[in-house]
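Hi R.,

Here's the chain you asked about this morning:
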Amino acid sequence: MATAPRRPLHKLGSTSLLLAASPALAHTDHAATGLVAGLLHPVTGWDHLLAMFAVGLWAAQPHQRSGAIWWLPASFMLALLAGAAWGWNGVTLPWGAAWVEPGIAASVLALGLLIALARCLPLTANLLLTAAFGAVHGYAHGLEWPQATSPAHYAMGFLLATAGLHVSGVALGYATRRHAWASRLTGGLIAASGVGLISPL
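And here is the predicted structure, written out as tokens:
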């Protein structure tokens, strides 16, 4: 895999639903730095926010395999961190950086459809799919990593924000277990948002 000029690795030591949203909103520059910048990044862009919320909601669906409620968010967050490291280090993706935004939009659409249609996939397939989505979102985080921030603090911030969004999705999943239509409706709204995100691309 080809790589762009790498930044020093030591810097890595120390990341109501809307029917249509613009991807441009997701990746704004934040005046804050470090932990606060990391916390803000996932929640100030609808594409990141919806996908991370959807992972929690999907993991909490009653038809999911045992352990999915823990493993799916964990696989997303681990892949998110790995993807962020790739972006930060300037690793060039085989399919090119131009596919990052469409990939993020597609993750919102796919997760919404899985929830809306109550699709039951094998746990391994769930994990791989969720990890792939996490890696794409993480790569976008890494590319936009503010240069003035502490990488460790920024990563801690976006991981905490992501975990919070996962927990919110799980909470809604549990709250709607006796009202499957509400969960499926939410999934439909997320999927519609994914269509709105893809349309301008």
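One quick note: The chain has one domain: 32-198.

Cheers,
M.
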